[in-house]
Amino acid sequence: MPRQVDHAQRRRQIADALWRVADEQGLDAVSLRRVAAEAGVSMGLVQHYFASRDEMLLFAMEAVGERVARECGAALAEMADPGPRDRVGVLLRQWLPADEQRRREARSQFAFLVGGVGGPAGTFLRDGMAMLRAHVEAEIVADGHAPDPRGATTILLALAEGLSAHVLGGHLAPEEAGAALEAGIASAFGPA
Amino acid sequence: MPRQVDHAQRRRQIADALWRVADEQGLDAVSLRRVAAEAGVSMGLVQHYFASRDEMLLFAMEAVGERVARECGAALAEMADPGPRDRVGVLLRQWLPADEQRRREARSQFAFLVGGVGGPAGTFLRDGMAMLRAHVEAEIVADGHAPDPRGATTILLALAEGLSAHVLGGHLAPEEAGAALEAGIASAFGPA
Q1: Which residues of chain A make contact with B190, given a CB cutoff of 8 A?
Q2: How far apart are CA B120 and CA B171, in angstroms?
Q3: d(C-alpha B103, C-alpha A188), whole Å
Q4: How many H helices and E strands in chain B?
Q5: What pLDDT is stored for residue B104 in this prediction?
Q6: Whole-prediction pTM value?
Q7: Which residue of A lies nearest to B158 if distances are taken between CA atoms?
Q8: Burial (CB count within 10 angstroms: exposed 0-12, middle 13-18, buried 19+), residue B24
Q9: What are the tens digits of pLDDT across the range A107-162?
Q10: Would you call B183 and A155 a contact, using CB atoms and an 8 Å cutoff?
Q11: Cα distance from A4 to chain B (closest Cα, Å)?
Q12: Domains of chain B, first to last
């Protein structure tokens, strides 16, 4: 068992190093070699965990998804009987770059977006957005007050993305973005 | 007079080349030398028009602003007595990456955003967003139906940014983004 823990920790440590490289040097700079250097481990060790750059990128993206899921789970556990609006609120609040780690991830994800990622990481990103869209739409349907759940989902997810971009660009304070997101959620779900 | 026309045309030709370099090779790759090569002119000619990389970047951004202003002016000239909603609609529709030139500019602007541009171009970008915000808010105030023009402006501009990002990322068809933008404008201005 301790070896398995080590394994998972190592992979996360490498994923964290990958995000730092992507953030500081750009996505094109991400290679097994540079990530190894950033993580302070040998190239051989990185290759032991990841057969290719694609596999490493994919894992790093999955790690973000898992962290988001974990933090959402923790936030929901503190709520009494959360409904669709609460669940979507918890999820989308994660999107706003509130601390340095999330800023780094958000910057890298915009870099993916503008760079047009191919390979498994690109597929993961597109599938992830499609799943997020389906999930939010299903919650809006479950809530049952929005006349056009699909349209409301498109607007709400674009709003969250744009607020994130404007916080990153320094155009918006995180608190203003947070308030705008709450208003957007209320508007997407319709009058309760 | 012909010489002045040549001058303006040359500068625009160089600005177009700059956006192509930024889009294909990233913002860090933008230099007087590479832009000259892309434009098919000599380094000396580029230096004749621009004293520095910063000056060239700033001009390229101003050129986008001028194109947007020109196209908005043309769209508004075709409308009979446009009001605040029409004017904001015309302006924000320009934001969506509907053709290859706008896609290229939008990708580069996201690169600026995530890269955190310094120098005069960064100041221009931040001032431009602040001016856009003030302008849209003033139009919403002039329209007179929104209870919270400032909050409505924050939401509307973030929505336009996010829709642009989702079109660029291939998550949204331009028509869906267009429909969501119209709904967002109607919602920002409030019931007419």
Answers
A1: none
A2: 33
A3: 28
A4: 9, 0
A5: 83
A6: 0.88
A7: A162
A8: exposed
A9: 877 777 766 666 777 788 888 889 999 999 999 999 999 999 999 999 999 999 99
A10: yes
A11: 36
A12: 2-189 (1.10.357.10)
